[in-house]
């Protein structure tokens, strides 16, 4: 029994063929595209935070009249950002793992991407966490130098996200791994 939907017969309609649906050439391509897409979204989120949110907070702190606004804003901004970024990075790592399992010839690229995404979390937990805790607990006059340190440390996360995106991109893009072999005519 095959169900027709708008004249299209689904390729994998039985339980026996369920696993085959995830290993078809179309599905493998979709895993690679989604992994690269997750890496691009992660990089874009860090790019926006680094060059829009953090400079805005720094400008609020530098201006004397609104210095009292920036510190409470960071106290609200950081937890919401963490609630978005941690699941996004973990999802990116899972997508990279799916890219790893579906494209065996290029495993190193995916392993590097997974490692770089894990490095973002480790960098945040090990290096940035004391500054984040101090920034959320600090009074407004101390917030300026702490935010400047946070901005500089966030550039490392941006660079790691960019490198992970490049690693996933090189595993995704056939230009990097399928170079034609040239054979010159013999005389």
Q: How would you briefly describe this protein structure?
A:
This protein has six helices and no strands.
Structural account:
The protein is mainly α. The chain is built from 6 helices and no strands. It is 79% helix and 0% strand. Helix 3 (67-102) packs parallel to helix 5 (140-172). The chain is elongated. The model is unreliable at 12-19 and 179-185 (pLDDT under 50).
What key phrases describe this protein's structure?
disordered C terminus; mainly alpha; 6 helices
Average of the residue pLDDT scores = 78
Name the helix and strand elements from N-terminus to C-terminus, one letter apiece. Answer: HHHHHH
Radius of gyration: 23 Å
Uncertain regions spanning at least 5 consecutive residues: 12-19, 179-185
Oligomer: single chain
The percentage of residues in β strands lies in under 5%
Percentage of residues assigned to helices: over 70%
Cα-to-Cα separation, first versus last residue: 61 Å
Broad structural category: mainly alpha
What best-fitting shape do the alpha-carbon axes yield? elongated
Write the layout of secondary structure elements.
Layout: H1 18-23, H2 25-62, H3 67-102, H4 107-137, H5 140-172, H6 174-177
């Amino acid at each position: 029994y095959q169900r027709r939907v708008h004249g299209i017969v689904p390729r994998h309609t039985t339980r026996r063929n369920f696993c085959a649906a995830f290993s078809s050439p179309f599905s493998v391509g979709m895993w690679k595209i989604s992994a690269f897409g997750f890496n691009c979204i992660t990089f874009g989120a860090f790019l926006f935070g680094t060059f829009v949110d953090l400079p805005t907070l720094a400008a609020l702190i530098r201006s004397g009249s609104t210095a009292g606004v920036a510190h409470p804003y960071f106290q609200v901004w950081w937890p919401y950002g963490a609630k978005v970024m941690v699941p996004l990075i973990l999802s990116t790592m899972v997508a990279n793992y799916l890219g790893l399992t579906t494209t065996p010839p290029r495993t190193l690229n995916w392993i590097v991407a997974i490692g770089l995404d894990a490095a973002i979390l480790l960098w945040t937990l090990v290096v940035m966490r004391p500054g984040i805790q101090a920034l959320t607990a600090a009074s407004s006059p101390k917030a300026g130098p702490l935010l400047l340190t946070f901005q500089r440390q966030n550039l490392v996360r941006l660079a790691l996200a960019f490198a992970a995106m490049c690693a996933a991109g090189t595993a995704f893009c056939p230009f990097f791994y399928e170079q034609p072999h040239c054979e010159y005519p013999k005389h």
